[in-house]
Amino acid sequence: MSNMFRGTGVALVTPFKEDLSIDFDALAKLIDHVIDNGVNYLVALGTTAETPTLTDEEKKQILAFVIKHNNNRVPVVCGMGGNNTAEIVNQLKTYDLNGVAGILTVAPYYNKPSQEGMYQHFKAIAEATKLPIILYNVPGRTASNILPATALRIANEFAHVIAIKEASGNLVQCMELVQNKPAHFAILSGDDNLVLPQIAIGMEGVISVAANSYPKDFTNMVNAALAGNFNESRALHYKLLKGIDLLFAEGNPVGVKCALNLMNICKNTLRLPLVTATAGLQQNTKEFVDTLKG
């Protein structure tokens, strides 16, 4: 089951119009752009989608739209996490998840639970759904780190907990997960600039921000690495590295919306508290995007 999420998943942005309503036409264009350029699956309602600023109704509309427009071309993962365990369990029971291939659920943020609290949180989620579950560890955002022992405890207990998106940036922690994981459990990257070395140590892919804007080169880099063609993968990695750094220079999805706007895929609009890229970042991103056009 974990092979479904091998390769490149893309954490889709949520395009907004000038009035900050959801731009579904741009979302359709983005979905076609990433699928046509080789991504293996879509992630709706991840962090990159500005989910903290979306209403419950908007989240349901976006998920339904992504599933419908995707039209079974690739699997769709739904981001469903938070720091109120009971609320996530309730969402799993009340959202229409027909057409959803898996759930991506982030470590509880702000509350800073203990490892036992983290385990109990994910256990409650695992008991509330039969859908495949991808854990999401991103200490830079959550102020809490799912330690390998905790992630592996959940994975060993529940066969449908099939992967972790590991965005600690800590390669030693990544190695501990790879070395000790059960066979059904995939270790995925959450750090676009580290994917190449992470695949070299045994990770199986990525849930990516950069695959919104640079899907072809990025997925080719991942596929080459997974096939053991590290010379080819390395060339693409260094081709993209500056562009990836620019995506995160002022936070996510500030950079990627700037790039997508330059590619005429969506407007460069974000909801507060996020603001558009500075003039300097926009100029640097334009120069990078122009180099890709050759």
TrEMBL record:
Keyword Transport: no
Active site: 136, 165
Catalytic activities: L-aspartate 4-semialdehyde + pyruvate = (2S,4S)-4-hydroxy-2,3,4,5-tetrahydrodipicolinate + H2O + H(+)
SUPFAM superfamilies to which the protein is assigned, alphabetical: Aldolase
Keywords, ordered alphabetically: Amino-acid biosynthesis, Cytoplasm, Diaminopimelate biosynthesis, Lyase, Lysine biosynthesis, Schiff base
Gene Ontology cellular-component terms listed: cytosol
One protein family per Pfam: DHDPS
Annotated compartments: Cytoplasm
First-listed, main subcellular location of the protein, grouped into a coarse class: cytoplasm
Listed EC numbers: 4.3.3.7
The UniProt record lists the keyword Cytoplasm: yes
UniProt pathway annotation: Amino-acid biosynthesis; L-lysine biosynthesis via DAP pathway; (S)-tetrahydrodipicolinate from L-aspartate: step 3/4
MF (Gene Ontology): 4-hydroxy-tetrahydrodipicolinate synthase activity
Subunit annotation: Homotetramer; dimer of dimers.
Described function: Catalyzes the condensation of (S)-aspartate-beta-semialdehyde [(S)-ASA] and pyruvate to 4-hydroxy-tetrahydrodipicolinate (HTPA).
Protein name, per record: 4-hydroxy-tetrahydrodipicolinate synthase
Species of the source: Taibaiella soli
